[in-house]
Structure to design on (431 residues):
């Protein structure tokens, strides 16, 4: 494993995020670009592992990098007691570790004035990365900007099928089989040419200042995943403050005439209040399992998430005060997949999803974010978010994913409309 990093302190002509991204693409290296909620600075990581290691999401053990986990990560959850370490699929084929990990072989930090700091691991790959980066920059200035046309790919049965599945879920819940399930669907669109992921990322950053914005390129899968998620799963900052959020209940952030609604005046139905309370209760149950009582609970409050509003409750723990430094890792394993993306009870809801959804969720409704990154010279921090409001780019095609939390009071057509609104979060920016 490469550990030595060289700080490139004298940067005369400063490369942009696009330069880094395109260099990684040209060399076939995975890359992640992100911006934390309510921050302006952007961060980028390039990994020199052409095939990414699959790891257990252990925040104590992992080096600096970026983690991205699929929804179906329950085997990893079951492995809570295993010794936590990086496990490579190629070596241990029956490994439960499923989180893809981009080690920070290249790390760059962009402030409002452009590149402010970069490190590149000292290796042959590091050398070729630097060379390519310089070469690409010299060529790039001549590339003319292009305008994209986005067309929806027809899927005539999608609505009927989704509505039918919601009705089945409602029936099952009325018969007491489970209390909540989140059913998702996809929507596919075609671009006139392969879009520039960094340009889309920049647009998402501008439009959604309070969201976690990311673009993750995974060459071994031929995919780029982009998201603007409002949902924090687990954070542990440089001062040892742990945070998680329960988020559920959805309505448009706009009146029918297009004027923005005031969050303080949002009206929530009993169904939505209960749906969100189930997520909060799920989090509290996780705290109970580890006998942690010293958490601060704030909410529920109405939260703006781009074109939508949700009900959210924040949970905070000072891990230094409670002497629980590994809380982030422990809670991550207990929480994922939360009832905001799976259901209650979790295993029954998970089985229902597997049986009824016709698409593979892949990385949608998993989690993603920076791990052990020291962004402000304060110490390493990890910020993992639920991977929603996202799309998968494969060349010119994009697949958007959206789900809705169902209870026995759900109205199938309304749930379909909710998934349409959720798709609009990205669609309205990329179209
Ligand atoms: C599942 C999604 O979102 C989740 C489900 C919500 C709901 O059911 O109201 C609200 C916020 C998210 O926790 C999604 O966006 O795909």
């Amino acid at each position: 494993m490469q550990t030595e990093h060289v700080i490139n302190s004298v940067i005369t002509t400063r490369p942009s995020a696009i330069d880094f991204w395109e260099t990684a693409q040209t060399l076939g290296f995975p890359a992640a670009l992100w911006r934390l909620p309510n921050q302006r600075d952007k961060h980028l990581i390039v990994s020199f592992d052409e095939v990414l290691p699959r790891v257990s999401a252990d925040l104590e053990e992992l080096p600096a990098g970026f983690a991205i986990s699929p929804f179906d990560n329950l085997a990893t959850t079951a492995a809570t007691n295993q010794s936590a370490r990086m496990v490579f699929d190629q070596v241990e084929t029956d490994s439960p570790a499923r989180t893809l990990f981009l080690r920070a072989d290249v790390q760059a930090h962009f402030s409002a004035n452009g590149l402010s700091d970069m490190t590149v691991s000292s290796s042959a790959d590091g050398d070729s990365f630097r060379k390519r980066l310089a070469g690409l920059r010299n060529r790039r200035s001549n590339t003319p900007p292009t305008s994209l046309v986005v067309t929806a790919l027809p899927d005539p049965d999608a609505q009927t099928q989704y509505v039918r599945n919601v009705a089945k879920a409602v029936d099952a819940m009325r018969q007491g089989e489970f209390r909540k399930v989140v059913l998702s669907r996809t929507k596919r669109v075609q671009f006139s040419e392969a879009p520039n992921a960094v340009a889309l990322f920049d647009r998402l950053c501008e439009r959604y200042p309070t969201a976690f914005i990311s673009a993750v390129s995974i060459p071994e899968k031929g995919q780029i995943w982009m998201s603007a998620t409002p949902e924090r799963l687990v954070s542990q900052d440089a001062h040892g403050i742990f945070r998680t959020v329960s988020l559920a209940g959805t309505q448009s952030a706009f009146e029918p005439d297009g004027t923005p609604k005031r969050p303080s005046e949002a009206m929530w139905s009993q169904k939505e209040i209960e749906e969100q309370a189930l997520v909060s209760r799920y989090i509290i149950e996780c705290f109970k399992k580890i006998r942690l009582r010293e958490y601060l609970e704030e909410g529920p409050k109405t939260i703006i998430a781009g074109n939508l509003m949700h009900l959210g409750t924040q949970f905070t723990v000072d891990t230094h005060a409670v002497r629980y430094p590994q809380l982030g890792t422990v809670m991550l394993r207990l929480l994922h997949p939360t009832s905001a993306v799976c259901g209650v009870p979790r295993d029954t809801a998970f089985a229902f999803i597997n049986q009824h959804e016709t698409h593979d969720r892949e990385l949608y409704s998993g989690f993603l974010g920076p791990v052990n990154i020291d962004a402000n010279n304060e110490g390493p921090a990890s910020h993992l978010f639920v991977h929603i409001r996202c799309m998968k780019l494969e060349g010119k095609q994009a697949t958007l994913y959206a789900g809705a939390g169902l209870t026995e009071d759900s109205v199938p057509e309304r749930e379909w409309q909710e998934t349409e609104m959720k798709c609009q979060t990205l669609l309205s920016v990329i179209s």
The mean pLDDT is 90. The chain is about 30% helix and 30% strand.
